[in-house]
Amino acid sequence: MSEPLAFVFDGRALQGRAGDSVATALYSAGLRAFSHSPKLRRPRGPLCLAGRCGNCLMTVDGRPNQRTCRTDLRAGIAVESERRSPAARSGAAFTRVTRHADVVVIGGGPAGMSAALAAARAGLEVTLLEADGALGGGLALEGAMATTAEGRDLARALALELGALGNVHIALGAECFACYGTGPVCARQGDTLLEVDARAVIVATGAHEQPLLFENNDLPGVFLSTAALRLLDRGLRPGARVVVATVADFGLTVASALLEAGVQIRAVVDGREEAHASGPEVGRLRARGAGPMFGARVARADGTSAVEAVTVAVGSVEHRHEADALVTCGGFRPAGELCAQATGAGEFVLETATPPSIATPPGFVTTADGTRLFVVGNAASIGDLRRAQREGTIAGIEAALALRGPAPAVQAQLDEQRAGLVDGRAR
Fold first, then answer.
1. 213 three-class SS
2. Left (φ > 0), alpha (ψ -120 to 50) or beta: where does 30 sit?
3. Distance (Å, rounded) from C-alpha 17 to C-alpha 277?
């Protein structure tokens, strides 16, 4: 068992475990409504547990609007719910830190770690920015799925390789918010503002999971599928009786993971026709008595302060399923916000354009100040693990060639790696 950590929430003494975020500790303690909507005061529960939805905002040690899902639990921490809009308070002063590197890699998932490794092995000075408190990205989530549990082992192996290289600086908990192509890449790391001057930027920010649209989709107890995996990773369950709704194979995989964790699946709702589903999960779910209802959709989540039931529509017929949680997967889209930021020339780096394909040279665009910008992995287009690793490796090698000039041995490595991508897919 992890070390117990005592903390205070709204004046109550609670206990979490080392490795918890404030959000997972509160969820483990039974809290379901973390915040309220600003206008109608509707309760809001954790949705993504990735710092992207705002539902987990609370005051932590006197500082308002902290994302508790990205705030590590510490002994003695004081957490307050924000039942009203918090008054303006002076925050802690930020310390500005400027670093210099040949390459800055944004994102520490499989694509970002592979890019950093390749660039560092080619002799470049690398700074790797990762918003979470540990490297791994999507690989860390796979540790909660019995079918792909090797993901966490791969994440550890890549992290160990990076840690052994003296020319790689890893900044964890560093959320990048500025990559304009006319100055340093900027990230917030606690009370520190990191400014990284680099001649090449590799964007490996992964993907955003998209929510499904239905009535009352903001009730506490409605989770994105990746959030459900984050709970499983901490030994928690999104609920005891769960409905899973999806339009992607990933949702079916998460349904299998929930079953393996002992969760009772009341229904698996798939908005696609069965012919569009691929992979072995349909058979696995049917063998466990949780076969997907294809061509169905969630009409609404029922409940007042939290999910109490889910109404599913099949054509014009509705079915009500008693449940205390609804796990949804609306598919994924590239997290390409940094690539869409303005350049000093008043243009956008990748405005309405497809990101540069790493499969064909040159695999980058040049920004207003001459910085080479690469986009790899799911940040460019949604793909699989092998492709993400391959693209990251190609970007790291190509960055070395762009910054250091021609080198036959390095070029041979690049050609070999690029040959492994056919129609943008790894082979």
1. coil
2. left
3. 39
How large is the C-alpha radius of gyration of the chain?
22
Contact 103, 200 (CB under 8 A): yes
**Beta-ladder partners of 59:** 80
Do 326 and 215 sit in the same domain of this protein?
A: yes
Strands (E), 157-296: 168-172, 175-178, 185-189, 192-203, 207-209, 222-224, 241-246, 264-270, 293-294
Structure tokens at 332: 């994924």
Whether residue 86 is contained in a domain is answered as: no
Residues 187 and 267 in one domain: no
In a domain, 85, yes or no: no
pLDDT (tens digit, 9 = 90+) per residue, 310-337? 999 999 999 999 999 999 999 999 998 8
Domain that holds residue 37: 4-80
Measured between its terminal Cα atoms, the distance across the chain in Å is 41
Residue type, 286: R
Residues 237 and 313 in one domain: yes
Q: What is the pLDDT of residues 267-311, one digit of tens each?
A: 999 999 998 988 889 999 999 999 999 999 999 999 999 999 999
Residue 286: half-sphere exposure toward Cβ, Cα within 13 Å? 8
Do 217 and 322 share a domain, yes or no?
yes
| Collapsed DSSP state (helix, strand, coil) of residue 287 | helix
DSSP alpha helices (H): ranges in 261-296?
281-287
Contact 232, 152 (CB under 8 A): no
Determine how many CB atoms are found less than 10 A away from the CB of residue 91: 11
Return the CATH number at 27.
Answer: 3.10.20.440
Buried b (16+ CB within 10 A) or exposed e, 2-13: eeebebebeeee
Q: How far apart are CA 342 and CA 363, in angstroms?
A: 20
Q: How far does Cα 84 stand from its chain's mean position?
A: 29
Q: Do 285 and 145 reside in the same domain of the chain? A: no
34 and 16 part of one domain: yes
- Exposure letters 266-290 (e unless 16+ CB within 10 A, then b): bbbbbbeeeeebeeebbebbeeeeb
Return phi, psi of residue 217, to 5°: -75, 5
**Assessment of whether the complete model's pTM goes beyond 0.85:** yes
